[in-house]
Structure formats: C-alpha cells, structure tokens
Amino acid sequence: MTRSDAGRGGAFLRPPVVEMVGVGRSFTGPPKVDAVRDIDLTIADGEYLSIVGPSGSGKSTLLHLLGLLDRPSAGTYRLDGVDVSRLSERQRSQLRGERIGFVFQAFHLLPHRSVLENVELSMLYGRIPRRERAERARRTLERVGLAHRVEFSPQTLSGGERQRVAIARALAPAPSLLLADEPTGNLDSVNADAVLDVFDKLHMEGLTLAVITHDDDVSKRADRRVRITDGTLSQVVDHPDVLHDVVQRPHALGHRDVDGVER
C-alpha cells in the first residue's frame, strides 16, 4: 500500500515532517546575495529525499534552514507541524536537538572516547534519562551494524565504520528527520555503498531522510530527487511515466524510539 492509497481512506495519513512555502534566504553583503529563493518543499513522513546540485547552488544554505541552524529571510517553515519562525533561539535549539539528526561529510567523532561514548554524548542535553543513554546507544549501534565495535576507539575503525558511528549518534535521540550533507564524500566506493545501504535500511524502517549531495549516484538511492540550481528547486523526473509514491513502511506511522516504541 502506498501512502497515497492509505490517505484516500483517511487512515495512516500523517502531516509532512517538512513544509517550506516561499522560503528565501538573503545576505545583505555588499553585494546582496539571494542564496535561496521561493523554495516550496514538502517532505512526507517516512520519505527518502535527495537534494542534488553543484557547489555554490545553495545546498548548504538550504541545509542550514532545514536544520534550524539559520532563519529564512522570507516564507514559512513548519517542522513536524511547528511554525519555527515563532520560536525563540532557545526553543529552536531544543526542537533541533529533539527532532533533527545530522550526518556530515566529516565524522566529527571524539578520538579519545569509545564508540559507545560518542553515541551517548548525542543524548547529553536531551530529555533522555541518564540511565537509559548507554542502552539506547547500544541498540542504535546494533541498528547500524556496529554492535561488535562499541568499546573500540574511533581511530581504529575504517572510514565507513566511523560514518556509521556518526549515523548512530544522529539516530540515538530518535529524531523525526535525518539530514545528511555529502555523507559519502570522504569514503571510497565500497564504504560509500555500505553507508547508503544503512540509509536504505533506515528508510525501510520508516525514518524520514533528506540527503544533500552533488553525486547523482548517491541521489538516485532516494524515493524522490530535487535539484537546486542558483538557489531555486526543480523536480528531477527519472521516469516521466511513473508516479513515485512514498511506500507505507513498518514503523512509519509514528515517531518511534530506537526500540520501536511509538512516541
């Protein structure tokens, strides 16, 4: 059953995780730069979206807006139905910590902490009780195939394994949205495929993903692709005669913890 099919009967339909309408971001300069403009973007609950574009196209600016790292100059942005323009910086920071996970090209792991401790640290400032953090970190590492590496130092791991630790760190707080910025940029093809396989698995479990990349091969793994060029978005149609619906997947009906409990 597709999400569209489910919606026709009124069951299973959930609001989008991301709703951007007329979003723009300008920098005053001089000279003034319109980094992104008139962005209309919806990301459905459980969808896997890729945003592809060359350097300087506005990808980073859009990532910062999606991740609540910056505020738009125009338009509205709702994350999980919350109009973020109405929030204080403290409220935005809390929402970002609870609802958004980040994966970057660089792994940003602490070399003198174990793999388990690196993942635990992502829950330090959240509402997760201290006694639960280690167990949740272990479950999340198992989810990305690293249960056998929990006590290792990140320095002893391959690049692909370190990126999977970074993914586990992003997943541990149980975000609504996983944002990945060039997640395979530092990896060889074998490790890149392993990381993309993890994204496929998370997608099948119902996680909402947005991957920003310049690599068409990476972007093609997603349900849907959009291209950003000179700060504006356009749809990428791979198969014009086929309508791509978001598949209704297990665990996609609610915001769930790493152990599958709906929140």
TrEMBL record:
One Pfam match: ABC_tran
SUPFAM superfamilies: P-loop containing nucleoside triphosphate hydrolases (SSF52540)
GO CC annotations on file: membrane protein complex; plasma membrane
Keyword NAD: no
Residues of the ABC transporter domain: 18-255
Any one GO MF annotation of this record: ATP binding
InterPro entries according to UniProt: AAA+_ATPase (IPR003593), ABC_transporter-like_ATP-bd (IPR003439), ABC_transporter-like_CS (IPR017871), ABC_transpr_LolD-like (IPR015854), MacB-like_ATP-bd (IPR017911), P-loop_NTPase (IPR027417)
Keywords, alphabetical: ATP-binding, Nucleotide-binding, Transport
PANTHER family: ABC TRANSPORTER ABCH.1 (PTHR24220:SF86), IMPORT ATP-BINDING PROTEIN (PTHR24220)
Protein name from the UniProt record: ABC transporter ATP-binding protein
